[in-house]
């Protein structure tokens, strides 16, 4: 199948829970939009996989007022989507450097933002899909300059599956980038690494509120 890649403090986490829920909602909607756009560039095998996903999430569009209300309440029993196939992790550290990305899962409804088809190791910041299959993955990265920032380049890689390279200009306004891919995964842990061209430039920060990693199962 053809594939293409486009280029902590518990109290504070609890305080951000409503915003994290909104980030997860945005992830679900944006993921589907990216997939439909990808249909124009994927090979026949990829298109067939996406078409199967389209049938699975057909109930997402249109969303009735009642269903939208259920989603905003975090109702895990809502028929709009099956949460077990989804996982969303928020960035847990704003400092830029050569290091393993720190992820946190979020409270969502009566559960968390990590579905039952995934195993998240908080200590290792590793996410493991429990089912072999084809997955849609994406990184959503947002950076801000606090004061007199020098240019830099930040790269975040999820193993050898997904790489997102972001150029940060000098004294720039906020910079955002989304990178995505569709990959066949075995039951393997996904660990993300950040690398920077120049270390020690503390005035550039990763925005925790909107930055994160999302993944969901297309076909098994």
Features:
alpha+beta; 22% helix; Jelly Rolls; 220 residues; six-stranded antiparallel beta sheet; disordered N terminus
Fold and architecture overview:
- The chain has 220 residues and is an alpha+beta fold.
- The protein contains four helices and 14 strands.
- The chain has a single domain, classed as Jelly Rolls (Sandwich).
- The strands form three sheets. Strands 1, 3, 8, 11, 13 and 14 form a six-stranded antiparallel β-sheet that branches.
In short:
It is built from 4 helices and 14 strands. The protein is 22% helix and 35% strand.
CATH architecture grouping: Sandwich
What's the overall geometry? elongated
The average pLDDT value, as a whole number, equals 75
Number of helices: 4
Q: Give me the CATH fold name.
A: Jelly Rolls
Helix content: 10-25%
Strand proportion = 35-45%
Terminus-to-terminus distance? 14 Å
Given as residue ranges, the uncertain stretches (5+ residues, pLDDT < 50) are 1-17, 39-81
CATH class reads Mainly Beta
Record field, number of beta strands: 14
Order of helices and strands: HHHHEEEEEEEEEEEEEE
How many domains? The number is 1
Radius of gyration: 17 Å
Largest sheet: 6 strands, antiparallel
Summing up helix and strand content along with how strands pair, one would put the structural category as alpha+beta
């Amino acid at each position: 199948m053809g594939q293409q890649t486009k280029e902590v403090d518990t109290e504070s986490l609890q305080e951000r829970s409503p915003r994290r829920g909104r980030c997860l909602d945005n992830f679900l909607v944006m993921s589907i939009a990216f997939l439909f756009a990808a249909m124009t560039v994927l090979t026949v095998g990829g298109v067939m996989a996406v078409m199967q996903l389209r049938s699975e999430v057909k109930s997402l569009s249109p969303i009735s007022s009642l269903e939208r209300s259920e989603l905003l309440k975090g109702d895990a029993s809502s028929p709009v989507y099956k949460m077990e196939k989804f996982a969303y992790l928020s960035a847990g550290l704003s400092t830029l450097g050569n290091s393993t990305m720190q992820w946190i899962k979020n409270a969502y409804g009566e559960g968390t933002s990590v579905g039952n088809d995934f195993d998240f190791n908080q200590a290792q910041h590793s996410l493991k899909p429990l089912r072999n299959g084809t997955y849609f993955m994406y990184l959503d990265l947002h950076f801000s300059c606090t004061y007199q920032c020098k240019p830099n380049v930040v790269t975040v890689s999820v193993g050898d599956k997904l790489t997102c390279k972001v150029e940060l200009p000098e004294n720039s306004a906020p910079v955002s980038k989304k990178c995505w891919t569709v990959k066949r995964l075995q039951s393997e842990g996904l660990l993300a690494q950040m690398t920077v061209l120049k270390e020690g430039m503390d005035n550039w920060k990763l925005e925790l509120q909107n930055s994160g990693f999302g993944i969901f199962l297309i076909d098994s």
